[in-house]
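Lab notebook, bench 4. We co-purified these components, and the gel suggests they stay together. Before we commit to crystallization screens, I want a quick structural picture of the whole thing.
Request: model the full complex, all chains together.
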Amino acid sequence: MIPSNLPFGLDEYSARLTKVRAAMQQVGCDVLVVTDPANMAWLTGYDGWSFYVHQAVIIGPSGPPLWWGRAMDALGALRTVYMPSDAVFGYEDTFVQNPDKHPMEDLSRLLSAQGWANARIGLEMDNYYFTAAAYMSLVQELPSAIWVNANVLVNWQRAVKSPTEITYMRRAAKIVENMHATILNRAEPGMKKNELIADIYHAAIAGVDGHWGDYPSIVPLAPSGKDATAPHLTWDDNELQAGEATFFEIAGVYRRYHAPQSRTLFFGEPPAKYRTAEAAVMEAVAAGMEQAKPGNFAEDISNAFNATLNRLGFEKDSRCGYPIGLSYPPDWGEHTFSLRRDDRTVLEPGMTFHFMPALWLDDGGIEITEPVLITETSAEYLCTTPRGLMVKG
Amino acid sequence: MIPSNLPFGLDEYSARLTKVRAAMQQVGCDVLVVTDPANMAWLTGYDGWSFYVHQAVIIGPSGPPLWWGRAMDALGALRTVYMPSDAVFGYEDTFVQNPDKHPMEDLSRLLSAQGWANARIGLEMDNYYFTAAAYMSLVQELPSAIWVNANVLVNWQRAVKSPTEITYMRRAAKIVENMHATILNRAEPGMKKNELIADIYHAAIAGVDGHWGDYPSIVPLAPSGKDATAPHLTWDDNELQAGEATFFEIAGVYRRYHAPQSRTLFFGEPPAKYRTAEAAVMEAVAAGMEQAKPGNFAEDISNAFNATLNRLGFEKDSRCGYPIGLSYPPDWGEHTFSLRRDDRTVLEPGMTFHFMPALWLDDGGIEITEPVLITETSAEYLCTTPRGLMVKG
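Here is the predicted assembly.
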């Protein structure tokens, strides 16, 4: 039975499967074991917080994808995937976190039963949810299989977004705009940081314009002052201070599609140093955006960005962006290309990325970042949040 | 410089290190590469959402733990760990998600530089954040090392909680009590599910009694009706319905310490079938709790629980609990013992677990679950939320 709330039409799932099979042929694999939860969802509709146990979607040379996971989660698969119930396989609960046996023994039996014990099998070797032990178990159980590293093979097929995917990302963009408006509205000196984060979460999940909010693949990052010299600290109950910058790296999410956007908040006029950094970032971003168009390379954006930034006296030694879309924790990036030197990925209409020109200075950080869509001729910001530093009071 | 908000005293970190080194000796490894974010935090104080890139804490035969990760996250380590800055190592940003090189090449150089190229090195082989590719890279770069599977070695040292850890879990328990009170207070037929989840999140992060809420390692699971036949579905914007059960599996979190607790909500009197299931679960839980005491095995709890449940006409074919405490996404379980047949882990005072007697029936689910502490003589529920079905109106 096809779930009534399947996020995409059957034709779209079918087209995705065709694209993936073509890519499999290119790397020479007959069968693909997909363990990245975002790839699993993109291929089948599966949606559930079950990626803390071993699970996979298997793409064979023909036929529908197979869903495989813990028996109790097979019930969740039956509620969310488009395939028939005989394409859903559950393993017994004693395989869960048991040092004496590994769930991949069960997957190996399934692969054998499908006639794939001697197949060329693709694996997502550097995916979070494909552990060293999972790999060792497969290699031991299926000694005649030929293993192919198919890491991020499916991710690459996700790089160009369909019209429905772009619609979902636009909804996510409206949600993150509202989250930043909530910050500007609620934040006050003396307010405990976690109280503000509670309000941000409320705005994220309530959604806007009748579109509900889903959970983000990264929780709000919201360091203040010296803590903002580091990019990935979360929150505590310290009070917001006048004279201290806080950056908010957050995302709106609609049906697992992400629109991340960051802003940096000051109470009162920021120090001149921050205004200088702001101007440099804005000018460098504008230079980068001019290069964000079909036919250019990913590095064209970062090279233009970095050249301008350096000319203005600042330096950033990390990538300044990465693709975004459908994702599950722990990351909202798609792990394909990066906006950095030597990345020659050709930009195409429908690609989406997080332009991430964050500067972490010696005494704080400044993040003014945007979700961006490559259009037929150039690039478009998905959000209308006022750019620049966020100044209150 | 020791961070002012380090969650535990230096003596506690020192005792943890001693315990881990003793366990390393037992499995015969000189060096341990710790990639589980909860283990990294427990050993060093490190706290940041950076586990989406490769990182580790390394325990050598002597000296402080070493923190290793992406250069930008080394700044976060300097803000959160107790070790001196020369124990913190950052790798260059071009290693991030780059098919041409792997961060473990950098870790291999660090291990060599420490004189450990020929050491017996323990690895957390089945940890989410230790991928197949990470393992293959280490094996290739350090051909003379001897690799030891040290999966969940550190997790086991975390099983018995210290007084401060128990204090943190009691605070988390108060937070989850308040989250369930919020559900009872706010939920109404016709309310959109995501609006209720927004309120739950707000209560989770705002915290109670002056103790702030941290993010949970699993987002709220809140399926209704037929969707509640599956355990791990999240939410959408469907309206809550009279005559339909919704279960809420949620956790309060204080400084990464979790108190998970579930309740099942009905508007109006539940059907007789659910009252029968409720009575069976309550009686089976009581039987299990009688076995929850120092000296007993983990399986004594589940055997008593299952025997009672079966006698009353119900069956549960999955484990009925697992240890809890410090954790990071995607799981709040500790991955050591399970409450299931044949698990002969000896219970000790200070152990904490989620007693998880969920039943997924043919037309819905019932979850009434508790965080539990093993005391000197028996066991204690950490929460005072009224037990049984949650009935409103």
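The mean pLDDT of chain B is 97. Worth comparing against the SEC data before the next meeting. Chain B has ten helices and 15 strands.
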